[in-house]
Each structure stands twice: as structure tokens, then as C-alpha cells.
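Per your request, structure below.
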């Protein structure tokens, strides 16, 4: 069925033109009015009116000249045979089609010239009809002018549709670009945080190796081995600092304060309450010691959920649930906002880029994340982080 509609959309008008031209040729031959010619003159008229109507088939290549030829040709033929045009319904149909095509021209100037051609041509055709009345001289051109207006309206609608598609494509490209930027920024942030975590661990190991080396007599194989380990560790720290310096942007200096973790959620909740959103914390299960990187990522997930709830939900309360299971850590941030347009549209049009970054964190640990509008209202952010992969 779809192929049929596409075929009709492409060739349906051409089929109508050919059918109208054929019906007009047959009707001209079968005329029985007083102006009907005979012999060669009749066949010349049949050929001429058929060619005039079939000119509409060239509208794709000649969008202005094709309908102009129809109207000028039809009006000109009435000077030879007064009833050749007015007695054929096919000519009327093609004339209406030509008027619509004039209205649909991209150039406003050509469209207005086409309207003049239509009005003058219609007046000439009606005037040469022996049976015309004064009302016909007024009504018929107006009827074709309405067809021209319809063509103009269709043109405007098509332009708005194309413009809307262009805007949608640009918006989609912008969303994709913004999402890529958000992912890149979050990965860079994770790399900086990982540097701090690893640097701390390597620093501790270097210090411990140095302490052990000083207790071993100098010159022994053990002392040389520990000295080599200490040197490699210090070199690794220097390289990490150098790489981190290249990753930091502008005045983004190294953080001197300890990175936060789930133990700092009470402080975070207090800051959000001070900003106007009532935050309730819920802890399920027995808390366990988490690796520093995982602890920091869990904190960032909750922080992003509360930031979204504060900025975009329009609610008064948010519930944060931290659930410790034997094999995973589950996090949930749920607000009581409307959960309608503001949240869902925001995720699609740029407000959810923070969640895209958080998704990168969850993916890095092999976890799962979901963000959705609850059926009971409110927006929910959920994430689960496997503890086994964190310990590995």
C-alpha cells in the first residue's frame, strides 16, 4: 500500500493531465455546437488543445513556463474557436492545476505574475464564450484565483515542514554533540579522580618501601631491589602528575581536599536542604568499606541525582536510598516533582547531560543505571555497582 501512495504522489498528477488531455481530444471531436470545425481544421484544433494541456507534464523542468503555456495557449485558442476551451471539462481541470502550480512557485514574483496570467486568461476564455454572463466574467477568474491561493498555502505548508525537519535534524545533531562532550568531560573528570586515588596508593607504597629499605643494610641485594622499586614508584608518580597537568583545563587546579564518599552524604543533603529541597537519607543493609574510586563514584551519582531534582523537578522532597547487598551497591534518588514535561523533555534536550556522564561512571564499573518518570509521579535515578568487580 505504501508503494501505491508513493507512486500516486509522484505520478498521480501526470496521470490526471494525460486523462484530461485525452478526454478533451475526444470531446473536441464529438462536439456538436455551431462553432465546431470540420476536416483538417478540426484535427488541428484537437492537436493544439492536446499539446497545450500536455505541457503540464514538463512542470518539473519548467515550473513557470509549463503552466504559463497552458493558460496563454488556451486563451489564444479561443480567438480561433470561441467554444473550444469553454466546452471541455478537461481544460477546466488542467487550468485549475496550472493555477495551483503558479501559487506553489518558490519565487513570489513569478507566483504573482502567474496569478495575473490566470486572471487575464480566464477573463479572455469567458469573454469569448457566446453564452457567458457578467457573473461568469467575475466568478470564473475568482474561482481560479482561489486555486492559486490554495497552491500558495500548500507551498507555505511545505516550507514550514521542511524548516521543521531541518530544525529537528540540527537539534538532534546538537544533542548528539552535547552528549559526546558530556561523556568526554566525565571521562576526563574520572581520570583526574583516578589519578588522585592511585597517586595516594602509590605514594603510600613508595613511603613503605623507603622505610623498609632504610632498615636493610646498604649494598645488599634486597636494598638494591627496594631502591629500584622506590625509584620506579617515584618516576610513575611524576609521570602521572605530568599527564594530569595536560588533562586539566584552564585554571582547573589539582584538588587539595580529600575526595568525598558516601560518608559525606549527610553534608551533601544538608547543602541541598539549604537550597530548598528536603532530602531524606535511607541506608539499607550493613555498610561495608568500599574502594576509594567506587566510593567517590557512588557519591557523584547521588550528587547528580540531587542536583537534577533541585534544578528541574519542581518538587519539595527527595529520598536517597543506599542499599548494601553482598554483591552490589544499589543507589536510588527519587523526588516528588510533577514528573512530566520538564523532566522528560529535559533529558531529551540537554538537561540530562549530567546523567549521561554518570552513565559513563556506572559503565566503567560494569553496573546498570536507569532514569525515568515514575508512574506514581516524580523522577527516579537508579544505579547498581557490582562490588565484586570493584574488589577485583
Amino acid at each position: 500500500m505504501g508503494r501505491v501512495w508513493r507512486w500516486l504522489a509522484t505520478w498521480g498528477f501526470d496521470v490526471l493531465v494525460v486523462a484530461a488531455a485525452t478526454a478533451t481530444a475526444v470531446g473536441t471531436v464529438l462536439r456538436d455546437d455551431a462553432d465546431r470545425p470540420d476536416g483538417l481544421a478540426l484535427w488541428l484544433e484537437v492537436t493544439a488543445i492536446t499539446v497545450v494541456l500536455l505541457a503540464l507534464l514538463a512542470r518539473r523542468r519548467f515550473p513557470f513556463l509549463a503552466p504559463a503555456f497552458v493558460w496563454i495557449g488556451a486563451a489564444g485558442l479561443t480567438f480561433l474557436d470561441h467554444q473550444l476551451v469553454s466546452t471541455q471539462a478537461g481544460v477546466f481541470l488542467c487550468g485549475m492545476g496550472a493555477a495551483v502550480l503558479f501559487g506553489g512557485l518558490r519565487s513570489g514574483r513569478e507566483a504573482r505574475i502567474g496569478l495575473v496570467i490566470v486572471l487575464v486568461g480566464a477573463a479572455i476564455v469567458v469573454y469569448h464564450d457566446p453564452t457567458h454572463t457578467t457573473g461568469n466574467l467575475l466568478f470564473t477568474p475568482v474561482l481560479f484565483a482561489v486555486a492559486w491561493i490554495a497552491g500558495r498555502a500548500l507551498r507555505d505548508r511545505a516550507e514550514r515542514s521542511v524548516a521543521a525537519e531541518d530544525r529537528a535534524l540540527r537539534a538532534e545533531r546538537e544533542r548528539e554533540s552535547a552528549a559526546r562532550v558530556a561523556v568526554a568531560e566525565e571521562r576526563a573528570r574520572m581520570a583526574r579522580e583516578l589519578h588522585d586515588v592511585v597517586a595516594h596508593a602509590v605514594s603510600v607504597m613508595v613511603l613503605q618501601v623507603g622505610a623498609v629499605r632504610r632498615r636493610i643494610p646498604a649494598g645488599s641485594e634486597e636494598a638494591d631491589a627496594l631502591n629500584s622499586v622506590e625509584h620506579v614508584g617515584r618516576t610513575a608518580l611524576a609521570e602521572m602528575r605530568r599527564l594530569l597537568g595536560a588533562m586539566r583545563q584552564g585554571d582547573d587546579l589539582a584538588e587539595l581536599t580529600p575526595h568525598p564518599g558516601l560518608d559525606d552524604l549527610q553534608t551533601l543533603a544538608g547543602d541541598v536542604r539549604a537550597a530548598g529541597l528536603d532530602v531524606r537519607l535511607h541506608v539499607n543493609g550493613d555498610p561495608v568499606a568500599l574502594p576509594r574510586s567506587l566510593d567517590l563514584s557512588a557519591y557523584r551519582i547521588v550528587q547528580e541525582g540531587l542536583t537534577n531534582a533541585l534544578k528541574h523537578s519542581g518538587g519539595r522532597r527527595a529520598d536517597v536510598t543506599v542499599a548494601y547487598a553482598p554483591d552490589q551497591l544499589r543507589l536510588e534518588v527519587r523526588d516528588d516533582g510533577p514528573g512530566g514535561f520538564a523532566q522528560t523533555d529535559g533529558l531529551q534536550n540537554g538537561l540530562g547531560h549530567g546523567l549521561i556522564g554518570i552513565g559513563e561512571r556506572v559503565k566503567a564499573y560494569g553496573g546498570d543505571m536507569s532514569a525515568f518518570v515514575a508512574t506514581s509521579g516524580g523522577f527516579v535515578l537508579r544505579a547498581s555497582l557490582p562490588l565484586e568487580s570493584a574488589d577485583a
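The longest strand covers residues 317-324.

Regards,
D.
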